[in-house]
């Protein structure tokens, strides 16, 4: 993973789920200092950062507000749906195309099972899609036989997701994820934000780039028209050009963060300074334009989404 991606993920993690110094990968942890740097309450961990860092429709975890309500442990059903996409393949390989097929399937599944499903420009386009990219691009084995794109076969997939046993009787063992034996990482180029953005634009099925959510129970998804955002700067045609998609997603994080973080930290400026320091070099390197304040048809982003989407209102915000 490239330094820009590592820096962004680390910063988002410690800001949204931690105390600016450390973060729990799950929920609350007794090892986290509660009163550091003006933090209100206790650090909630990554599992508690819905819908900012933890989002709906992830590859193998459930949604916070779906009927199961477990967004921490792996859902074996979702893993098997991914696994079965290559179950009968002559040479099984969970490539970027396969992962984004699973991405599409999980998007529809979330709409059909989670009455509070909601996807924003950052949470839906960037945060949600990235684990699908990471699985294909970082977990593939770059052995001598597959030095370029690598190959992610069944046994490699099982090891990374803590699944054990023969195909006819596989079991998920909590906390036993591991790097497989004889695994060779990427050797030529690190995987960074620009490469991930290209994968999202190239491999996403059109519907998963929708912004919006369920409005009145399951299967009631209503999207926000791109042209209604940012004063009409974006539309369906130019969204996928260049860095427009990821730039707008990063801008959404920057715009919404003061409101999103005000309930977590007493001294907001120290937190936004950390976050902006991570965002600005990335946005500068990608030559991102400066957008107007995030709004929908002139209505404040927060007010519009709270009125329109129960999932956004229930979570108290989102980007």
From TrEMBL:
The keyword Heme applies. GO terms for molecular function: metal ion binding; peroxidase activity. It holds the Pfam family Peroxidase_2. Residues 1-17 form the signal peptide. Residues 1-202 form the Heme haloperoxidase family profile domain. Its cofactor is heme b. Gene3D superfamilies: Chloroperoxidase-like. Keywords: Heme, Iron, Metal-binding, Oxidoreductase, Peroxidase, Signal. Belongs to the chloroperoxidase family. This is Aromatic peroxygenase. It comes from Fusarium oxysporum f. sp. cubense (strain race 4) (Panama disease fungus).
């Amino acid at each position: 993973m490239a330094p820009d991606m590592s820096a962004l993920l680390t910063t988002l993690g410690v800001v949204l789920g931690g105390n600016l110094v450390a973060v729990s990968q799950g929920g609350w942890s007794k090892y986290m200092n509660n009163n550091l740097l003006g933090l209100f309450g206790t650090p909630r961990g990554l599992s508690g950062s819905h819908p900012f860092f933890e989002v709906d429709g992830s590859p193998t975890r459930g949604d916070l507000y779906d009927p199961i309500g477990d967004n921490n442990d792996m859902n074996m059903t979702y893993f098997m749906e991914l696994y079965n996409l290559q179950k009968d393949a002559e040479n099984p390989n969970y490539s970027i195309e396969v992962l984004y097929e699973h991405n599409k399937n999980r998007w529809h599944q979330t709409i059909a099972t989670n009455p509070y499903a909601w996807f924003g420009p950052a949470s839906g386009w960037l945060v949600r899609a990235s684990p699908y990219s990471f699985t294909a691009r970082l977990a593939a084995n770059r052995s001598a036989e597959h030095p370029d794109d690598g190959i992610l076969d069944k046994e490699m997939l099982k090891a990374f997701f803590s699944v054990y046993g023969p195909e006819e009787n596989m079991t998920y063992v909590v906390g036993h994820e591991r790097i497989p034996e004889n695994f060779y990482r990427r050797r030529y180029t690190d995987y960074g934000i620009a490469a991930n953005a290209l994968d999202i634009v190239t491999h996403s099925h059109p519907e998963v780039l929708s912004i919006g959510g369920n409005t009145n129970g399951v299967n009631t998804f209503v999207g926000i028209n791109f042209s209604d955002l940012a004063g009409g700067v974006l539309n369906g045609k130019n969204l996928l050009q260049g860095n427009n998609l990821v730039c707008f997603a990063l801008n959404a994080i920057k715009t919404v963060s003061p409101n999103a973080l005000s309930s977590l930290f007493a001294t907001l400026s120290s937190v936004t300074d950390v976050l902006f320091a991570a965002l600005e070099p990335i946005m500068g390197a990608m030559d991102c334009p400066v957008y107007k304040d995030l709004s929908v048809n002139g209505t404040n982003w927060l007010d519009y989404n709270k009125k329109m989407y129960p999932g956004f209102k229930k979570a108290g915000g989102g980007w």
